[in-house]
Amino acid sequence: MAPSFIPLLSLCMVRFFGGGGGGGRDGGYRQRSERKGPKMMVGVSVTLEELYVGTEIEVDIARQEVCHHCRGSGARSSEHIHTCDACGGHGVRVVRQMLAPGMYTEMQTTCDVCGGKGTTIKEHCPVCGGRKVVRGSEQLTVVIEPGMQPDETFEGEGDASADYAAGDVHFVVRQQPHAIFTRNGAHLHMQRNITLLEALIGFKHEIKHLDGHAVVLEREQVTPSGYTQVIPGQGMPVASSDGYGDLHVQYSVIYPESIEEHQKTALKEILA
Length: 272
What we know:
GO terms for molecular function: Hsp70 protein binding; unfolded protein binding; zinc ion binding. Residues 54-137 form the CR-type domain. The protein folds into three domains: 4-76 and 125-175, Urease metallochaperone UreE, N-terminal domain (HSP40/DNAj peptide-binding domain, Sandwich), CATH 2.60.260; 78-122, Heat shock protein DnaJ, cysteine-rich domain (Chaperone, DNAj Protein, Chain A), CATH 2.10.230.10; 182-271, Urease metallochaperone UreE, N-terminal domain (HSP40/DNAj peptide-binding domain). By secondary structure, it is mainly beta. The model is unreliable at 1-33 (pLDDT under 50). It contains three helices and 16 strands. Strand 13 and strand 14 (214-219) form a beta hairpin. The protein has a four-stranded mixed β-sheet with strand order 11-12-16-15. It has a three-stranded mixed β-sheet with strand order 1-8-3. It has a three-stranded mixed β-sheet with strand order 2-10-9.
């Protein structure tokens, strides 16, 4: 089966409905109500790099489908579907009860023979065994747009039945942890260690961003431990726009484990 392409849009619910069906003795199932089937939740695991540049991910969905052989009737063929003898095809029966001598009441109830369907099956479908549904699968290509947020969802077509419309399958974006960056909305955060010398006289470092481009981290002033430098426009893309968040770099100063006596003397002369 060729994959279906479904864009995963921010806060956009794309709903797919199951196909209709016929009725009567032509082998098709009775008209379904608008009642929907159970909801399915499927996680789509993506890396931070994929959320930055965008990607396409193929997802195989195992779901319940209306039996292709009997088209949801549950019968071997249309010849094996018969009008219910108990209710005459109406799906209901009238029950008469005596309240007192000469006094009766009539009550309409669902036919207990056909279950309200109006038909009975003499021989069940050899494929689904009369269950009307089979287990199937469908491959979807999920389009991850640049800047999408974790836990965003969209809806597709889930379990189907002869008695109700296909339920929704909710695809949830799950972001994998990153070794360097953490994300807060459109902003990226990272920790960077610098030496005591760099903290005092400044530094110029180069790091690789999520798409491979270089970002320069530069300081010419004293940088205290815990200081956060904000680099505009080097965060995540803002979905459905041309904007970008910021990169927040928090510095930690790594102090030497020991200092020689002559170094102490030199430091005293410099810093005194």
